[in-house]
Design goal:
With 228 residues, the protein is α/β, with parallel strands linked by helices. 29% of the residues lie in helices and 33% in strands. The chain is built from seven helices and 15 strands. It has helices spanning 12-23, 37-43, 63-67, 86-91, 104-118, 168-174, 213-225, and strands at residues 3-8, 28-34, 51-55, 75-80, 96-99, 124-128, 135-139, 143-149, 152-157, 161-164, 179-183, 186-189, 193-197, 200-203, 208-210. It has a five-stranded parallel sheet. A five-stranded antiparallel sheet has the order 10-9-8-12-11.
């Protein structure tokens, strides 16, 4: 299950940044985005979303006013460059308040709070590292693929590889829906796939992995429809 995000900000660069953060974060997807709050208001009755990211200071109708028109069950995150709106934001029962300009790590902290409320997959998972037994935290957006290795699995991140105690099938159940098993020995993060070449995938870092014939059609369908 993904957290469906509604984005409303009258500043296009701010909206573009927020969209990029959502696209790179497992467990999130964009339901709709608007630079015109009045237009967004006219679509509220038909939009399907779980959380609204609202800029506070917008022409016509403010994010604070817009929040009052959202269904009570929806989560709200306010974004603004003005710290003085923080008290008003939390009076609206906001899940979080992002002060512009905010970095990706601050955004992930916000998503962690939303996940706790929604009981959704977290942006991080914790693993016991093989060998020294240390517990390591892995950011899921950095996890490109997983490979089976005897009694272990190896987590292949952007800049390093971690061997942990786990089984491939068990790990697949713990990962969000953008991870797919493509072979008896591999799980891949679909967000990191650059291209398909026959029964081989090429990842963003150039890594090439085989796809079993029985899983090729399923992978193509999942890529086509995006993360559910």
């Amino acid at each position: 299950m993904n957290l469906r995000c509604l984005l409303i900000d009258d500043e296009r660069p701010a909206l573009d940044l927020l969209e990029s953060f959502i696209r790179r974060t497992p467990g999130l997807r964009i339901a709709a985005s608007f630079t015109d709050p009045e237009r967004a208001l006219s679509h509220l009755n038909v939009l399907q979303f779980d959380v609204a990211f609202l800029d506070v200071d917008m022409p016509g109708i403010s994010g604070l006013e817009l929040a009052e028109k959202l269904p009570n069950a929806k989560k709200i995150v306010f974004t603004t460059a003005y710290r003085q709106y923080a008290v008003d934001a939390y009076e609206k029962a906001a899940a979080d308040y992002l002060l512009k300009p905010f970095l990706y790590q601050r955004f992930l902290k916000c998503i962690g709070r939303l996940n706790e409320r929604q009981h959704l997959p977290a942006a991080y998972l914790y693993f016991k590292e093989a060998g020294d037994g240390l517990t390591v935290r892995v950011a899921l957006h950095e996890l490109m693929y997983v490979s089976a290795s005897l009694n272990y699995v190896e987590l292949h991140l952007n800049d390093r590889k971690i061997r942990v105690y786990s089984g491939l099938e068990y790990l697949l159940k713990e990962l969000p829906s953008n991870f797919t098993k493509i072979h008896r020995s591999y799980i891949v993060n679909r967000n990191c796939i650059r291209m398909l070449a026959g029964q081989t995938i090429v990842l963003d870092n150039g890594t090439m992995l085989p796809i079993s014939r029985s899983r090729l059609a399923q992978l193509k369908e999942e890529i086509k429809r995006g993360t559910d």
